[in-house]
Amino acid sequence: MQPVNRVSIQFSSIPANVAFARVAAGSFASQLDFTINDLEEIKVAVSEAVTNAIVHGYGTDAGKIIEMAAEIAGDVLTITVEDMGRGIDNLASALQPAFSTDPERMGLGFSFMQSFSDSFDIQSEPGKGTRVSMTRICKKGVTPRQGH
Description:
By secondary structure, this protein is α+β, with helices and mostly antiparallel strands. Helix content is 32%, strand content 28%.
């Protein structure tokens, strides 16, 4: 049995770090035999989670800390993104497709995170922050990446 592999990183809640989180998650996930399409979906889900933390969690309060943790246990990847921001007042509404408290946004972030995950969990408390956890199972034998 392989040991569990874990990483945890903290970064400032600025838009430039969305790309950083995306690349870090993709690099970590590439240890498994995910397809290129799987890796892209993982990166999109992470981008959406980090963007939500920046835009909705902290708003104009730039430079606060976002924590991203990733774990590989066997062929299961779990990525968690957490902020200590505003939290979500009405989680049930926020999880509905096209719901947004910002008219400039499409409100599809949670939909992408859910559809690109084998399991998805969100915990949020107003005034205390939000924690999103996404799990993806590497389905070995289903078009594995070349070179692995």
